[in-house]
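User: Assemble these into one structure.

Assistant: Restating your components, then the assembled model:
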Amino acid sequence: MLAIEYFEVECPEPSGAAYYKQITNVVLLDHNLLRVIHKLHVYIDPKVPIFIAVGILKKITTRVRVGDFANVNPLEGKITLVISDETYLAPMLKIFWQKFGKDHVEQPDRFTVILYDIRVDPQELEDIIVADPSESLYNDLIYAFRLIAPEGFRIRSEIFSNEKFSFVASENPLPENINAIIRDKFALMGEVP
Amino acid sequence: MTLVPITYKGGIYQHDIIIDLIEDLGGYIVQKHVIAAEVVLQCFVPRDDIALIRQITKPLFGEVTDSPLVGTEIAIVSMSLEIHHLPHPSCDIAEYVRRIGAKSNMVSLARGPGKRIAGLNDEERDVINEHDIAVYLLGNFETCIEYKMPTLRRGIDVPIVVCGGPDKEILKKIINPPVEGYVGNVGRFMHRTKESDELEKLDEVIAEITRVLEKKREAISKDPLSVSPARLMDLIKEHVPAIHEVTSPTPLTVQMTGLRVKLPYDTFAADMRNIEIEDGITLGDVCDVVPSRMRDYILLKILPFSETNTVI
């Protein structure tokens, strides 16, 4: 079920830990985020109260190129693109307009784009990067952890860097030694923040 | 004549025979749903005549089942309207009690979540008190439940059933003074209840609600109501034609000791008090007609025999 190497939920109440493990799993699965997390440690203490999630992200390069979702067919001075997935159609058209000008780009129907009078190698066209879904990854992760954290924990501190992240939430001001606590939680996974 | 709540399920063909029969026997139809070619009637019928109804509905392939929650209005108290609690488990439970005949309203608190910051305001308190029973859906931590429960129950005088993540025994231990019902292992979760063990949990919630309501019914029967709420419903349908124009699913909501009338209080309350029930006794004599905290509805609170000295 889990593709995560390390996944623990730590809580003074054993039943609470089991529930929150399930909630964390369901939310991350629903938001399709399990594939980007390598290690995850969640700590909840309802007595303080505080919620801490620390983790390591997987390196993923999921750049979407034109060739991934379109068939490029050069024919008699024009290039016809047959689109198989519309998801990235809009950003692709934007890039084409910028690169070649609107006069040279035509879209006769939903699944076809024709480029007129342009001098470009079809291979080069296929390699144009259209979008990078990992750009919104941090936003998605923060949203998911807001869902996982108990409601009402409105004072938050989030640190998301390249590979490591920490998310702290509480309904009271965060304790002064919060950085030391985060370091301890990273140490439990055998990592340093 | 004791009226008992039942549900009739059957085809739409000749269902008017059943309606006539129930009315002739002195029963009342609380709600009628027509779903495609099927009819679901939630009604009160005399206990002795259930066998007769079963016999008459047999050729129509109708099904008569006991449904103890018909004629009750239940407040499902959810800590907030955020995605943390909705749609699971709040809506799952609200929908489940509706299936067996109860009218459930979801009451979401403005400042319910959290531990120290949880609170209950006067409007929420009054709305909850207008119901027959309040089902509190709490979270997964016993520390939080223990801390916030005294705040959340302040001023609530209807029976409370607490659902929470910890075991039933732990809930019993941490909630002081005790509430009327407890269901353990139903805390916060973020997925739909569809596995058999989860459905069993929902059944447990229903069983607990039914048990608490039975107790309340018993208490009411010691000092019976001056008039049956279902009878008042029929009476208002007859005398206040405006009720037929209301588009709510249940323009008249039957409760155990009262009736919610979904008409504006200022316009209709005076006329309603003057409706004659029988032998010169008016509606105002046997019940308190008060404005409801829910929109501008009217709430009829039926007085017990000990106060009016009449039973009609």
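Helices of chain A lie at 14-30, 66-69, 89-100, 122-126, 137-148, 178-188.
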